[in-house]
């Protein structure tokens, strides 16, 4: 955080990220979201000291309706394009991934939404040559995260859930 943020944390702007949306801003923000089977990709530019985050619900847009960021393939592409578009050194962008919990005891196949969301994020970031430096994925409990877009840190707390991991 910058000196003003450290001295007075109330000075940094806050944003709540709703499911199916993304957030990229050049000014520092603390972005909060809550994840179950959804996944958030946090991208951070360590040179420009800014970042962006998405929160998607389902892995793939099937071509019906609008291609919104509620679908991972849309949300990840939009986030990458927006962060790289503002970056002076897009090859240095790094990623952190969160979420993808299995919220049902017997989730497999098409019901394994968390697992499919994770696989999509990892695959798309690999294809776009963005290094994942940390993650907290899977399990059976939701997560609350707070992403600091200025310094790239993420605070995370697991929610009470179906049991222990």
What would you say this structure looks like, in words?
This protein is an alpha+beta fold. It has a single domain (3-158), classed as 60s Ribosomal Protein L30, Chain: A (2-Layer Sandwich), CATH 3.30.1330. Helix content is 21%, strand content 32%. The chain is built from three helices and nine strands; from the N terminus they run αβββββαβαβββ. α3 links the parallel β6 (94-99) and β7. The relative contact order is 0.22.
Unreliable stretches covering 5 or more consecutive residues: 1-6
- CATH arch. level architecture: 2-Layer Sandwich
SS element count, helices = 3
Q: Beta fraction of the residues?
A: 25-35%
The whole-angstrom Rg is 16 Å
What is the fold's blueprint, element by element?
Layout: H1 3-7, E1 13-16, E2 21-25, E3 29-35, E4 39-45, E5 50-55, H2 72-86, E6 94-99, H3 113-127, E7 131-137, E8 143-148, E9 154-158
Helix pairs in contact: 2-3
Summarize this entry quickly.
The chain is of the alpha+beta class. 21% of the residues lie in helices and 32% in strands.
Main features:
165 residues, five-stranded mixed β-sheet, 21% helix, 32% strand, four-stranded mixed β-sheet, 60s Ribosomal Protein L30, Chain: A
């Amino acid at each position: 955080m910058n000196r003003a943020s450290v001295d007075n944390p109330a000075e940094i702007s806050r944003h709540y990220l709703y499911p199916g949306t993304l957030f990229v801003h050049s000014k520092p923000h603390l972005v909060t979201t809550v994840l179950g089977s959804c996944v958030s990709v946090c991208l951070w530019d360590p040179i420009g000291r800014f970042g962006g985050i998405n929160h998607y619900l389902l892995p793939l847009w099937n071509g019906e309706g609008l291609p919104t960021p509620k679908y991972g393939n849309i949300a990840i592409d939009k986030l990458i394009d927006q962060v790289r578009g503002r970056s002076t050194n897009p090859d240095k962008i790094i990623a952190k991934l969160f979420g993808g919990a299995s919220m049902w005891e017997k989730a497999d196949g098409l019901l394994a939404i968390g697992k499919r969301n994770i696989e999509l994020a990892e695959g798309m970031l690999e294809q776009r040559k963005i290094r994942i430096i940390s993650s907290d994925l899977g399990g059976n409990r939701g997560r609350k995260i707070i992403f600091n877009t200025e310094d790239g840190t993420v605070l995370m707390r697991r929610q009470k859930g179906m049991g222990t991991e």
